[in-house]
Design brief:
Layout (H helix, E strand, L loop, with lengths): L1 H14 L10 H11 L5 E3 L5 E3 L1 E7 L6 H11 L8 E7 L3 H5 L5 E4 L2 H10 L5 E3 L21 E3 L7 H12 L5 E6 L6 H16 L2 E6 L3 H13 L4 E4 L3 H5 L1 H10 L4 E3 L2 H5 L4 E4 L2 H16 L16 E5 H6 L6 H4 L4 E3 L1
Helix pairs in contact: 3-12, 6-7
């Protein structure tokens, strides 16, 4: 009777998938793993070997050009597959500090304000900065060539870039003589570097420049009002997340007051701005993914040189020019990488 009872018990277990001839069934073992979830940082791969699951953070802001998608695609090309050997904790830029406090291997931030917030929350968290003006002056690196800390990335403020924007504005609109320098640059150094660059170029171009700085939407609206009241007839927009988010406000202001303006990102021209001289933000996300790959493979962020954008692209919006009664010189149009009709 005992032998028969054991046989019946075994059959019941087999019927419900609880046992197999050799140990626990694959089904029940899989259920156990699923219940544990991300608590296990190693998963079995197709060849039977263990695969380490990497966990990173991504502080993702407004992304009109699809840089975040390219970032993920590049990681996949490098062998990191979400849901298999990679977990990306994605949050908006305002939650960069929360990401920095999580148990992650590194955090990728899209802009300087997020980098500042993440560092304040956890100075030890490795950072990859997609774009940020003045990474040395803001203390993220000792030098461009050898950061020396726990951050690396792309600095959008190489020497001369602001001067070049002012030159392009003067070429597009020769009558410009009083240029407002609209700055929403956070942190330290970025504003001062751009201001010095612009002032040096202004002296050579025969124009006067005046800075208008804002750190909030209310201050930005107030600055635009002062620019109009002081009859500035040109506008150069400095690097800054606040202006990027409120680009339509700035573009519409320049259009309504017939002020020729040049911007730091292509999306300003796409929003109706006159012109932009800007790097490829999508490519910067691709570069950031390669930094992530190097760090996950053991590189120290402080040993990875910070990069400047390899190239800047000129975009001219001819409709915006017509709307303010401006004819852009053909010589300048011939140099444009993109003309919006």
């Amino acid at each position: 009777m005992r032998l028969g009872g054991d046989r019946m018990q075994r059959r019941r277990h087999e019927r419900y998938g609880l046992t197999r001839r050799r140990g626990v069934s694959r089904r029940s073992f899989g259920i156990g793993l699923a219940a544990l979830g991300c608590a296990i940082p190693i998963v079995p791969s197709a060849n039977g070997q263990n695969t380490r699951v990497r966990r990173i953070g991504l502080a993702l802001g407004e992304d009109p050009e699809g840089g975040g998608t390219v970032f993920r695609e590049t990681l996949r090309e490098l062998g990191y597959i979400e849901g298999h050997n990679l977990v990306i904790e994605a949050r908006n830029t305002n939650a960069a500090a929360d990401l920095a406090r999580m148990d992650l291997e590194l955090v990728v931030v899209q802009a300087l304000p997020s980098a500042l917030a993440a560092r304040a929350a956890n100075p030890a968290m490795p950072l990859v900065i997609v774009t940020g003006p003045g990474l040395v002056s803001n203390g993220f690196a000792q030098t461009i060539e050898h950061p020396g800390g726990n951050a690396t990335g792309i600095d959008e403020l190489p020497p001369g870039v602001t001067a070049r924007r002012l030159e392009l504005l003067k070429t597009a609109a020769p009558a410009v003589s009083r240029v407002a320098l609209l700055s929403t640059t956070p942190g330290h150094g970025g504003h001062e570097l751009q201001l010095a660059d612009a002032r040096e170029a202004a002296a050579k171009l025969g124009v006067t420049v005046k800075p208008y700085r804002a750190t909030s939407l209310a201050e930005l609206e107030q600055a635009l009002g002062v620019i109009a009241a002081e009859s500035m007839n040109g506008l150069l927009n400095f690097q800054g997340g606040l202006s990027f988010v409120n680009r339509q406000l700035i573009v519409d202001f320049a259009a309504s007051h017939h002020i020729p303006a040049i911007y730091q990102a292509t999306v300003f021209a796409m929003a109706g701005g006159l012109m932009a001289w800007a790097p490829d933000l999508v490519d910067q996300h691709r570069t950031a993914a390669r930094y992530v790959d190097q760090i996950l493979k053991g590189a120290n962020p402080g040993d990875l040189p910070i990069r400047y954008p390899s190239r800047y692209y000129l975009t001219v919006n001819k409709t915006a020019a017509r709307n303010i009664g401006l004819t852009v010189p053909s010589a300048l149009l011939s140099k444009a990488d993109r003309i919006l009709l």
